[in-house]
Amino acid sequence: MSGAFSALGSLWSWLQYVFDPFCGPVGIFHLLGGSSLVSCGAAGWGDEIALGVKVTVSLSLATLPFGLLLGFLVALSMQSKEKLLRLAGGIYTTIFRGLPELLTLFIIYYGVQMLIQGVLSWFGYDERIEINAFIAGMIALSVVFSSYCSEVLLSAFRAIPQGQYEAGDALGLGRATTMRLVILPQLIRIALPGLGNLWMNLLKDTALVSVIGLADILRQTGIAAKVSKEAFLFYVLACGLYLVLAMLSSIVISAIDRSTRGAEGRR
Predict the structure, then answer these.
(1) Do 206 and 216 touch, CB atoms closer than 8 A?
(2) 217-231 residue pLDDT tens
(3) d(CA 129, CA 244)
(4) How far is CA 44 from CA 50, 184, 228, 231, 236, in A?
(5) How many C-beta atoms surround the C-beta of residue 209 within 10 A?
(6) Residue (of 231, 218, 230) closest to 51 by Cα position
(7) Phi/psi of residue 15, each to 5°?
(8) What tens digit of pLDDT does each residue of 113-165 get?
(9) How far apart are CA 37 and CA 201, in angstroms?
């Protein structure tokens, strides 16, 4: 059995190498040649920059569902009939839309770390605690993303006629079923342009995590620029990578938009 798992692991590693768009057999950096500064292997920085792209994409994709869920909950609270819920939602969005993203990142990375250290010290545990930079970045970007996302979703909620909810009640659907089958499909279609813009901002905001040591695109290209003394080359390469990610995102968002509009037309 262990031999089978070892074989599967080797196969997975081989597939990752073959289909690697950067350092695979037909990868961009691999094709640049063995002596280039951006080639893969010991001669260049291709491996490190490819890792930075993977970290940037992973951080963005990990942040998105948490930010959407939190933003959805905040939007629900802001249109609630309960005054305290509306107040809490308003305070949340005011704080995290008003604070610079970098400051929010510092507060979560250093402040929460100090808070946890203080609580553990109170219980007699004096070992140093350090928060994972990826988790801290994901939390910070999630709360910032959700504060803007909630406003987009709130506007989308208000664009849906009240009669849609009443129609669900008339059909005997519960509130949760009405939300899932009637409201959410319309909400996605209405909010998609705004959410697409927020996703683009999220991709760019991932560059902030380089200041807490996470190996994203900006950090990896920055290190390469300092060591090689070729700042222009590597920062232009970083620009190109972010633009490629933005163009791929635009294609995906456009496909989702066409799909939602086509579904609406069939109904």
Answers:
(1) yes
(2) 999 999 999 988 888
(3) 37
(4) 11, 48, 10, 14, 16
(5) 26
(6) 218
(7) -65, -40
(8) 888 777 777 877 777 777 888 999 999 999 999 999 999 999 988 888 877 77
(9) 30
pTM equals 0.84
* CA atoms within 13 Å, Cβ hemisphere of 156: 23
Whether the Cβ atoms of residue 109 and residue 133 lie closer than 8 Å to each other = yes
Tokens coding 207: 């560059």
List Cα–Cα distances, 68 to 26, 37, 107, 113, in angstroms: 36, 39, 21, 25
Q: Nearest-5° angle of CA 158, CA 163, CA 167?
A: 130
Q: Are 131 and 113 in contact (CB under 8 A)?
A: yes
9's tokens: 């692991």
CA distance 108 to 115: 10
Tell me the three state secondary structure of residue 254.
helix
Q: Can you give the C-alpha Rg of the chain in angstroms?
A: 23
**C-alpha–C-alpha distance, residues 113 and 107, integer Å:** 9
Dihedral (Cα; 160, 164, 168, 171), 10-degree rounding: -160
